[in-house]
Amino acid sequence: MKILIALDGSEGAATARDLVVALPLPDSTELHLVAAYQVPTDWAPELGAGMAWIDDAETAMQESLHADLGAMAAPFVAAGLTPIEHVVRGRAATAICALARSIGADLVVTGSRGRGAIAATLLGSVAAEVATHAPCPVLVARGTQVSRLLVATDRSPGAEHIPDRLAAWGILRGLPADVVSVSIPDTPTFELIVGLYTLGDERLAAKRRDLHERYGRSAEAMAARLSAIGIPATAHVRTGDVAHEILHAARDHGADLVITGSRGLGALDRLLLGSVARNVLTHFAGSVLIMREAAPA
Hints:
- This protein is α/β, with parallel strands linked by helices.
- The protein is about 45% helix and about 20% strand.
- Strands 3-2-1-4-5-10-9-6-7-8 form a ten-stranded mixed beta sheet, with helices on both faces.
């Protein structure tokens, strides 16, 4: 398993590192640490554009970041792991995603907030962009431990691959999980129109009951697959706005990690990061694992 951890020296990056340190990583795990930097592209002539000291400044920046990575790697080294350090030039999110592709990362881990003006928001711009564009699953860390999972399922490809990924990784085995599937209710206007048109036709109610049961079967199937790989899971069905119900289910069940697919089955499934995943990622106070559609190798 190859894990790429994005580190920028911020408190959020330290949280991401400590969460990975706390996981029962397989002996074969390959850890990569990355720090990205940018240099100004609009040096004014009067500031000495093209002069040798600019190269010296960039070299000094690289050396400083390597030193930072070495310090951040100390807990891994203490645990007997030797991370591979990468200091890359470019926009942080772009560089992280590019490196994830080049090394064939199985998982990218990032803090929820970095340095700078955006640090006061619940979800930083780098974390949001990495979650949107990374070529593999992304874990956005907001805590240093994982004790209970909330797995959201909607029968989408990303959600369906959740048990396969977790089985291949093995890092969450033994943790209890709650599986939630959310049935979307009809709007009051639709209910009124249908009621007037059908005059209380029982067939409509039967179709709704069948739909609810299908959501239940989906949750039960996911719970069974998770239990089979050593993650004891219980199925639940809720009705309402999908992201809202996932967030409430996570809070109700005391989950500190929500796992969801990156895109759902609805009209927004064409987006790189669907609205449900984005809302959960933005508003959940705990860590969030966004699964991609591709099956594990």
